[in-house]
Amino acid sequence: MQTNIKEYDESFDLTQALQKKGTKEYGFIHLAQRANGSWVNIPIMLAVGAQDGPTLVVDACNHGDEYEGTEGIIKTFEGLDVSKMKGSFIGIPALNAEAFAEMKRYNTLDFVPQDLNRIYPGGTGPMTAYVCSWYCENIIKKADAVICIHGGGNSEYLEPVVLYCGEESPVAYKSREMAQCFGFKVLWKNTRYAENSGIEDEYAYQMGIPCITPEIGGQCTRMYQRDEHKQMLETGIRNVMTLLGILEGSVPANEGVHHYDIDYIYNRNGGIHVPVKKAMDSVRKGDTLSIITNLFGEEVDRVIAPFDGVVIGYWTYSVCPPHGWVYMVGKPVDGE
Ligand SMILES: [Zn+2]
Prior knowledge:
It holds the Pfam family AstE_AspA_cat. The protein is an alpha/beta fold. Helices cover 23% and strands 32% of the residues. The strands form two sheets. Strands 1, 2, 3, 4, 5, 6, 7, 8, 9, 10, 11, 13, 16 and 18 form a 14-stranded mixed beta sheet that branches. It has a four-stranded antiparallel beta sheet with strand order 15-14-12-17, with no helix packed on it.
């Protein structure tokens, strides 16, 4: 089988790669060898426009089981005509390629497993922290805008939602514009950037780069909505490319969006998790969100809505661990 996969090493220079105007290429950036001699890679897809313009970086699989973004990036890359582009699309279809292959949220080959999207800007080790720091230094810092795609992974359902920076600054306003044009109807206004939680969009914001985080799907949606979600991501990415002037045309209006401030709701005891409230259900403070039973059918916990809001996501795996995030509930944001 023939492939067109390029091999790059750690000295890969995005600035130099962007000089190859009007070309498309893709390949693996080799970062380090495992003990068995195989490589830990970052896969990269480069669609360099024929004319100068901004660079949009789009990544997926910070969490290895969130494949919607992977497929959305591949589909977007395939559909781009670089001869008509003013600027470039850089796709990272699986940043956490180890976890991607393991079909897990984390790379369990790390001696101490890390949540990649909680450790930005990374560090020297373990491997996942190094992937993070290499990516920050060599790719994100050279971007004009970033889209990091997440989703429900193997265990959660998520209503399609786009997180944007809700701070008051030109970079935040650009992030909001990107979220607005993406096409999803639920927007997540994040005003907690000061918490320094090691999340990619927060890191990008600190670097002065507008960033959004679309979240979509999960294993429970893939039987029927896989193609639909892939299409929604391609449309959203292309809309942002149009907003940035990389693609020609005007950005379609996205009417009827709702802005929420979204909180994770935790259970206490693990067990068999039965959701009562489902996606986009309105809830009142005190309502039962889900019931958790033990192996004998006895109720061991009940997850209660802590405020009035709307269910944006929830744990769909039949079993939940203790003190897990089993619900995401959004409070409507006034004045948006
Ligand atoms: Zn994620």
